[in-house]
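As the next step, I wrote out a protein sequence along with its fold in token form, included below for the reader:
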Amino acid sequence: MSELIGGAMLGAVFGELLKVVIEAKNKSQEYESELEKLKSTLESITPIIQETETLNIALNIPEQETAKLKEELIKGTELVRKCSEVKCCCFKRVNYSDKLNNLNQSIERFIKVNMQTQMARDNKKILVEVNEVFNQVEIDGPCSPPDPPASTPGLDAPMKELRTELVKDDGMQVIVVTAPGGAGKTTLVKKLCADDQVKGKFQENIFFVTVSKTPEVKIIVQRIFQHKKREVPTFQTDEAAINDLERLLKSFGQKAILLVLDDVWSESLVQKFMFKLPNYKILVTSRSVFPQFGSGHHLKPLNDEAAMILFRSSTTPQDGKLSFFDENLAKKILRVCKGSPLALTVVGKLLRGEPAAIWQSKVKEWDQGKSIFISGTELLVCLQSSLDALDEEVKECYLDLGSFPQHQRIPITALIDMWMELHVWVEDGLSAITYLHQLSDRNLVSLVITRKNVSDGGYYNDHFVMQHDLLRDLIIHQSMSEPIEQTKRLIIDISGNQFPKWWSEKKLNPIHARLLSISTDETFSSGWYELNAPEVEVVVLNLRTNKYTLPNFMGNMGKLKVVIVLNYGFLPAELSNFSLLGSDTVSKLKRIRLEHISIPSFGVQINNLQKISLVMCNVDQAFRNSNFHISYAFPNLLEFEIDYCNDLEELPGGLCDIVSLKKLNIINCHKLSTLPKEIGKLVKLEELRLACCTGLSELPEMVAELSKLKLLDISGCLSITKLPTQIGKLCSLEMLCMRRCSSCQLPKSIENLKRLNVVKCDEETASQWEPYKLILTKLKVEVL
């Protein structure tokens, strides 16, 4: 017995007992009621067993702590087996019936006492370590290679060839993989970085950097420093950055180093990263051939066999059940796609789940010479066919994605803000998510959720969209097909201070675009030409400089409703000329989103502003400014979001004077320690989210005065040990989220929350709610 106990995992022993119970119940009717009761008990505690084993492994807890339970489970397994073999005998039946009931009670008792105690201890250990996790911006590091797709047909041969070149000690220092866009270059290098031989040679010194069209040498170097957990320098020039990088790499001694530069447009950029170091190699992907580095490795189109595998997988739904697939039609489609992985994937997604008639119609069009290509840009036009398949409403939303840079995560909350003002069919966040899922199903975007199950109730601050660079080219091509004066979306990319010719020459009539997007790089000087765009309702500014001035022409946009400023640089950008948003002309402005911005002061009154979102911003200086009265600046605010603002220690007291406020979301602000005691003045507040504010020690008693509050979220607020005594006064509360709040005690007044429908929490916290479920009959406790 002791050998069996010591050698088996808790989950395996538990699973064996459950299996034997089910078999015995199906085979014998002698103990049907006892076995059914035992089966129900075991199934109900399965999550506890799984979580316990996971925690024990993660925290290196000795197996002896679960030995007693394992012994009980093994004995139980033997008992059940004996029961199933017992013939009909009154005495034996009664005897085994008692033993089965005793086994059931023993397991229930052990779980309630011993296991809950152990899990509470394990959770406390996690809480001790959690601050280290929160202090890491990215657990895997900003230059960690992304995971390759599960299926990569046709890449085995180039994979083998490149692997050989990489792992040998001599040979070319720079290895270039070249092919047209969408041919699978990035997929190939991702697969290489995950290869055991490559990882064995380069180990922790593989740096994966996406370069794109406008390279940022200083930021690339800063991210490599950050990846190696070194102090991140601030560089004045690219040359200084390269020199520091060379010194860093030399400090690794004889260790092998692999630098992956993905999507390189300029041969000169690669030259900057070439150093005379042993065991140092650079792997480059590019749409262009770089003769200086040899002939390179040209990634060929997929052969028919690999293309068919990829196409078939693209048309197969997640459940694996094909509604229609015709081999002959598929072969005709492969000829149209000409071995392009991206084209195969997009067309496959387009036809997924469609009936035979749609397949036949498409193939007939192509057989009759109706080309899906124009001007030789095969992939671009192939993607156009997928765009044409979208409903008009979804298509309009999709075209708006061109407002954001390639290779960057697009915040879904930013899309929601702009779509709700531009498109009447987007009513709220949920409908926006629906459109994004349709785009994802068509393989036009990738949805990324960075943190799951942290916050609830339609909150999407941890949801993002990724778009391929070619897809963005398609969007811009579509949006700019009309004359600039007549286009609905004006999307402008500025490199350095080189403005488009039409703009710098100032020869245009008024522009009628409703959406204006301007992207600038780190060398832009904020010297703006005038722009007459009176119809603009949404402005998206994508920047990379440390200092940025809002263009004066925004002050003349009488229909402006949404301003989104996103900084993709390494440091927060100082934003100036913010006061123009408070001019009398810009009287319809309703939503502002600032991301990675340093805000010295708002210094402006925006009377009709309904929502402001501050993400990864430096806000403490603005909030502490004695001349800043937030209730004066935003007197009619309905929603206030503060997310990942690491310098926020306290909220401005005047916040509680904005009596119009309905939603207050303060998420991932770990230095925030207290809330204003006057918070009860927010008489119209319906949602209060404080998720992952780990330094917040308590909720003010005045929270109980928020009579219209429908949702309260304190998930991940590890320091909160109790709820307000009179929280039962929240007569409108419908949802309470308190995951990872195992130390938080519930006051007796909880029983007065008559409208409370849902509590989202963890297993340990759920046990505190059990007594209240008898009083709050509509209450549903959802356990993570």
Notes: The two ends are 35 Å apart (CA to CA).
